[in-house]
Design brief:
InterPro entries: ABC2_TM (IPR013525), ABC2_TM_bact-type (IPR047817), ABC_2_transport (IPR000412), Nod_factor_ABC_transporter (IPR051784). This protein has about 270 residues and is an all-alpha fold. About 75% of the residues lie in helices and about 0% in strands. Helix 7 packs antiparallel against helix 10.
């Protein structure tokens, strides 16, 4: 009887996909979350691009176009890292995770559902930023080869930021404090990683070194490679795009994030 019931249970993948559908429906119903999730990064891009947009560098690229490319990294980080970290903390605090733990859903299926939500939001967020950059600031769209690079950068960036958000949620004691706790590293990394300040060589060398240990620097550098002309690589810290290093660092953070998730994930505030 038990074996028959177990055999009838859907797989972890199917359960995760169904959970992802539920997560998407719940998110769409919260109009405030929808507006602010997509509006804030786009608003920042419009502000930075408008304020500094009239300045051009030696390569003939406007500051607004640089911001448009760089802030794709910010959009992914804010959507994946903050959404996942805050959402997981809220689910743990309001008892959602505890109730789910009493059902056949596994931790892997639950996290897969969250990953589907974050991936969908990141696609929409990135599309919004690219649209603003192209239509408002004339950011050039890349050729097929650069779109291929964009695909693996986007995938690795989303996975790494999502997994890190899951791991960091373990130190969030209550959902009310989640925004403050998660946004402190987020804002700091934007400034030292060349998202808000470019060229990154304007920063002290030791800050660039610190930023190099985190994925945001490599995310923003990678998206600049995709959307900006090759002459812009001279303004990077190493004077090159370093695509191989970008792939290695982002993949490493995916592994680190996964290990941290396995170590820190819990269904309740205090697992017994």
């Amino acid at each position: 009887m038990t074996a028959t019931a177990a055999a009838a249970l859907p797989s972890t993948f199917v359960t995760g996909v169904r959970r992802g559908e539920v997560e998407l429906r719940m998110f769409v119903r919260d109009r405030t979350a929808v507006i602010f999730t997509f509006a804030f990064p786009a608003m920042l891009l419009l502000l930075f691009g408008t304020i500094f947009g009239d300045s051009f560098n030696d390569a003939g690229v406007s500051a607004s176009q640089v911001y448009a490319a760089s802030m794709i990294a910010y959009g992914i980080l804010s959507t994946a890292f903050v959404t996942m970290g805050a959402g997981l903390a809220l689910d743990r605090e309001d008892g959602t995770l505890k109730r789910l733990h009493g059902t056949p859903i596994t931790a892997s299926a639950y996290l897969l559902g969250k990953l589907i939500l974050v991936f969908a939001l990141s696609v929409a967020e990135t599309g919004t930023l690219i649209l603003v950059g192209a239509l408002v600031f004339d950011m050039p769209l890349p050729d097929a080869a650069h779109w291929l690079a964009f695909a693996w950068m986007f995938l690795l960036s989303t996975i790494a930021c999502t997994l890190c958000g899951i791991a960091v949620s373990a130190i969030v004691r209550n959902a009310r404090n989640a925004g403050a706790i998660l946004n402190v590293p987020l804002v700091a990394l934007q400034f030292i990683s060349g998202v808000f300040i470019h060229p990154i060589t304007l920063l002290p060398a030791w800050l660039i070194t610190v930023a190099s240990f985190f994925p945001v620097k490599w995310m923003s550098q990678g998206f600049r490679y995709v959307f900006l002309p090759d002459s812009m690589k001279s303004m990077e810290a190493a004077g090159e795009w370093e695509l191989g290093r970008i792939a290695l660092v982002l993949a490493a953070w995916c592994v680190v994030g996964l290990v941290l998730c396995l170590k820190t994930f819990r269904w309740t505030e205090r697992d017994q």
